[in-house]
Each structure stands twice: as C-alpha cells, then as structure tokens.
Amino acid sequence: MYMEAGNQTATSKFILLGLSEDVDLQPLLFGLFLYMYLVCVIGNLLIILAISSDSHLHTPMYFFLSNLSFTDICFTSTTVPKMLVNIQTQSKDLTFEGCLTQMYFFNLFAGLDDLLLTVMAYDRFVAICHPLHYTVIMNPRLCSILLLISWLICLSYSLLQCLMVLRVSFCKETEIPHFFCELAQILKLACSDTLANNILQYFVTSLMGVIPLTGILFSYSRIVSSIMGISSIGGKYKVFSTCGSHLSVVSLFYGAGLGVYLTSGTNQPSRKGSVASVMYTVVTPMLNPFIYSLRNRDIKEALRRFFSRA
Fold it and tell me: Comparing 72-76, 119-123, 226-230, which segment has the lowest mean pLDDT?
C-alpha cells in the first residue's frame, strides 16, 4: 500500500503489543497459552476421532459437533501460535500481508462457529419437536447443504472485510494494542476515511450476531413449548438434557463475544478487553470438548472405546 501525503508511509508491517509489555510476565504467558492451546487442539481432536471412529455417532448432531470441533481448532490456531512465536522470539512484528491473512481466517472461523451453533440448535429443534420425521428432515443431503452454506457465507463476508481494508491507508503509527490483528483495532490506525469500513463492520457484526442468535432463541422457544407438553417431570428432564451441552457452549460463546464487542470500542487496551478476547479466542474453544464429553454419555462411551482400541 502506498500513500501520497507527507505524514503517511507505505505500511509493510504492524507491531502487536500483546497482552502485556512486562518482560517478567512473558514466560508465564507463554506457558499458560501453550498449555491452553494444546488442551484445545488435543481435546477437540479427540472429539473428532471419537465421532469418526464410532458408527453409533454417525448422526446429524455429531456430524455438526465434529465440524464445530474442527472449527474451534482452526479458530484458536489463527491467533495463539503467532502470539507464542512473538513471545519466544521477543519479536512483535507482523507483516501487512500476515495481518490481513490472520484477520481473514479469524473472521472466517468466528463466523463459522456462530453459524454451526445455530445449525445445531435447529437440529435439536427437529429432534425434539418432530422426532418421527427427524431422519427424513435431517438427511445427509440437508446436513451437507447447511454446512456448505455456512462456509460460503463466512468465506464471502471475511473476504469482503479484507478487501475493504485494502482501500484504507495507514500512518506511521502501526502499533496494534492487542495480541492479534483485530479489525476494529486496525481501522483505528488508518489515516484515510474509514466510514465505509465502519458501516460494513457494524452491519456484518449485527447481521452475524442477531440473525444466528434469533435462530437459536426461536429453536429453543419451540423446544421449551414442546417439552411443556410432556406430563412427566422425568421425561421433561430427559428430553431437555440433550440440549444441555449445546446451551452451555452457546452461553460461553455469546457471553465472550458480547464482552469483546463491548470493549472493542476502547482506544487503549484494557484488562477487561484483554480478558474478553482471551475468553472468546482461547478459553471457549478449549472448554467446548470438556462440556460435550462430560455432559454426553455417548461421547464418553465413544472415547472409552477409542482408547481401548488404541
């Protein structure tokens, strides 16, 4: 990118300031994030292996769960490895191309996480409200189409966001007060007009936040209505317990996402903003496999059979 004004320059790199500039904290941060990253990758990988190796779990619900686990691995991998390298090498530089690439994949997998949770809510709605027609409605073709649509939507809007950043010029100050290239922080470094970028960002954020959440709330409103028609308390609990893991993951995802959204408008990094970002990008993907394995008897049995064969 080349700028003509005197106070602007070609931006070839950004500087990621990270979570803390305290030198004494760097070894602690490195060890903590390396541990969380390995737990996230191994945990989600085990979920994928357990589902793929057990024929009893070749159902729509576990098909989407395995894709969610794969997405969580990719989502965390867009930010944490680079941060670990920066801490280990004591280098905070990131090329403009690298920053744009990281931002693209971060938006892609964050959006995919969001849409997969919505599709999984729809799956639970069909299973509980239309149990006799479940296998007919949630057939392999529909599951593949829902997954493909989710990928196409996220690929398109992530590409659009990155293309819009290419039209922006930057000043000499290219320090990003974050541990990854977040779109909101990048736009604050721009010297040129970012009105169109900001409008697109708020529009896409609202669209990707409101519509999937509305779909989840609608699905669960119908599920609750259906469960209320069951006379037995034990029957109500048994039916609704199949949604417990999904509800826990949805609560974590949207809770952390809301925290990131509320703190992204600040000009300087804050403790609350850093905690929200870590929760959203690292902690939530790390906890998902634990939530599903601890609350789901089928997953626990599949993992036990997987390890017994290994």
Answer: 226-230
**Whole-angstrom Cα distance, residue 261 to residue 284?**
16
Average pLDDT over residues 170-181: 77
% of the chain with per-residue pLDDT over 90: 37
Task: Output the six-digit token pair for 268.
Answer: 């300087």
Reduced to 3 states, what is the DSSP secondary structure of residue 178? coil
Q: Could you give the CA distance from residue 21 to residue 53 in angstroms, rounded to a whole number?
A: 45
98, 161, 267 from 187: Cα distances, Å: 16, 11, 11
Alpha-carbon dihedral angle through residues 271, 276, 282, 286, given to the nearest 10 degrees: 120
Which residues touch 126 (CB under 8 Å, ≥6 apart)?
A: 133, 134, 137, 138
Which tokens go with 2?
């080349």
272 pLDDT more than 80: no
Choose among 83, 43, 22, 12: nearest CA to 289.
43
DSSP-assigned states of every residue in 122-165: HHHHHHHHSGGGHHHHT-HHHHHHHHHHHHHHHHHHHHHHHHHH
